[in-house]
């Protein structure tokens, strides 16, 4: 096999990257035609898309190809989870420089496929084009299987706010990597591959969650979206937030505040949801706050004076 | 409003580009949440994706923002048509340099929305990120409304081959633009905005088309995909191909062969389909060849010695 994607050409590369993609039961027509056909059993399809650009959303010297594939898939699958839906499939647009090793493109697709397979979803199609830098576009589809979608706009005063998944870990990993370190491994790995709490979105929907959001811009930023869409205020109880010993250690070494990472760090793809107060939230969810009449997000009753969420245009 | 997307920021830009996107009847939940929800009335969804990279798939000095939006939408909607499906929705990933005028991004989204509205489809979601050059990722969804998908693999010996839509026009426009001219306007416009024969894909499916393909890589290249997927050979009758006077004029001025543009030019997004011989093809379809046992594509019984299709990695 040629070493670079330029030598292999478009159709050769498409063949190489789609060769071993397993197709799950929701796939009615897989890769290789003008379009794919996927089951949408209840007559609705959930759809979300994200674009990842090299040196902005990932660095090839920080993450290997499979890491980038896992991350690109995970952040889309998480947006499907956040509606209470079950991911069924992904399509991928891949922009590659001519000198990109074929192995890198193949590794990326393998990572995408592996992450998708964690939830039984399949990579059903894509597009490969030449680009001066690596660009990965992922669109995920999902099925609600009869449940109503959980939006950002249904939170009501009196609801409790709960989180499922890790917070602050990806930010800790980013801070470590950006200072030239490669350890501690746990936080670096968290930056490379988010650990999405798969299944928790559907679980929350079935428990009657009133609103839900994927935490990709940071807890306070994403709760701000929920507060704004729902026309409510949200207060976070700082003492209820889990600040893992690993984060404390890294923050201590770097002279940083680990609670700020938990409150504002992005890219962990945790889920945050609002539940009626009488719902007994399952163990993997942690109640971290409450919803009131009003607007905006507070921490322990006050405006938080750290950075509120991260804008992908900043930095 | 700030002049550049860098000044406006991610959330501001998202607001600006999604402000006036009309939502059609298939949209159950539109832009603004983690994901959108779209109707898939027969329990299946058709999905396709394309990635357009500045200076490879479009040039900002050749096409205005609305042109790029129209083209990005059209080439995806055409892939939905080519399955016999009806487009319902698009999601868009947009990579923008900080110095990109806000008007350009807004114009792009307006072009996308206008093209989608030609078929009653809606832009239901997207992602906006910073990128050193403009990147547009479009994913289109469609509904089969109970008809079976028309794939590339069903052509049978004895079928006739028919084409609907223009061929060679986008290539003629490209040749004109690449020599620094801006006229004739008709071919330049064809390069900027393909004229997809909307509705013809469903029409072909209902008439019993055995195979169908969008002509994006060039007629011979795309017929090669059909021949290969179906395990048949296809012969094109050159005399049956329409070579419009406008193409003859441009080719004459440039010393080129207009038939070569018709046979191998890409990006017109015509449809080519195979039909059982007893089907009376509607007037907008032109019978251009036939299917036999064997393999490969010929023109008037012989291998074509021009360039066979275009590889998006070339040039």
TrEMBL record, chains A, B:
Enzyme class: transferase
Residues that bind Mg(2+) 1: 49-50, 127
Annotated binding of Mg(2+) 3, by residue: 34, 79, 214
Biological process terms in GO annotation: thiamine biosynthetic process; thiamine diphosphate biosynthetic process
Domain annotation PurM-like N-terminal: ranges: 32-143
Domain PurM-like C-terminal, first and last residues per copy: 156-297
Amino-acid positions noted as binding Mg(2+) 5 in the UniProt annotation, renumbered to this chain: 217
Record: residues binding Mg(2+) 4: 34, 48, 79
Catalytic activity: thiamine phosphate + ATP = thiamine diphosphate + ADP
Statement: the UniProt record of this protein carries the keyword Transferase: yes
Binding, ATP: 126-127, 152, 216
Keywords tagged on the record: ATP-binding, Kinase, Magnesium, Metal-binding, Nucleotide-binding, Thiamine biosynthesis, Transferase
Residues the entry annotates as binding Mg(2+) 2: 50, 79
GO molecular function, one term: ATP binding
Pathway in which this enzyme or protein is active: Cofactor biosynthesis; thiamine diphosphate biosynthesis; thiamine diphosphate from thiamine phosphate: step 1/1
Annotated residues for binding of substrate: 57, 267
EC number in record: 2.7.4.16
Other noteworthy facts: Reaction mechanism of ThiL seems to utilize a direct, inline transfer of the gamma-phosphate of ATP to TMP rather than a phosphorylated enzyme intermediate.
Protein family: Belongs to the thiamine-monophosphate kinase family.
Role description: Catalyzes the ATP-dependent phosphorylation of thiamine-monophosphate (TMP) to form thiamine-pyrophosphate (TPP), the active form of vitamin B1.
Full protein name: Thiamine-monophosphate kinase
Annotated source species: Jiangella ureilytica
